[in-house]
Amino acid sequence: MVLTVVKVAVTVYLLLALGYLTVVAVRRVRARGLPELPPYPGAEAYLKAMFGPRPPTPLPEWAHRSAADPPDEDEGRDSPPPR
Q1: What is the CA radius of gyration of the chain?
Q2: Total domain count for the chain?
């Protein structure tokens, strides 16, 4: 008998606490609005976790050329394929 009363009391307590937290969360969202999401959620954190912070690197020489430019004579295998 006592165990049943304790179970009911704990269940009611948890339901009231969950209801209170829900009401508080809804009021805060209505008052402040939803937070701005980054363009790709989690991408920045993922890249930092996987590769660490990276310094900005300059683009290679071939990145500044267009497809209409003639290829250099010394262009070797390290160049990307033409598009």
Answers
A1: 30
A2: 1
Q: What is the pLDDT of residues 19-66, one digit of tens each?
A: 999 999 999 988 888 776 666 767 777 777 777 777 778 888 877 777
Tokens 């339901």, located at residue: 15
Tell whether 57 is covered by a domain: no
pTM of the model: 0.41
CB 62 within 8 A of CB 79: yes
Domain assignment present for 29: yes
79 class by beta-carbon count within 10 Å (0-12 exposed, 13-18 middle, 19+ buried): middle
SS3 string, the chain, reads CHHHHHHHHHHHHHHHHHHHHHHHHHHHHHHHCCCCCCCCCCHHHHHHHHHCCCCCCCCCHHHHCCCCCCCCCCCCCCCCCCC
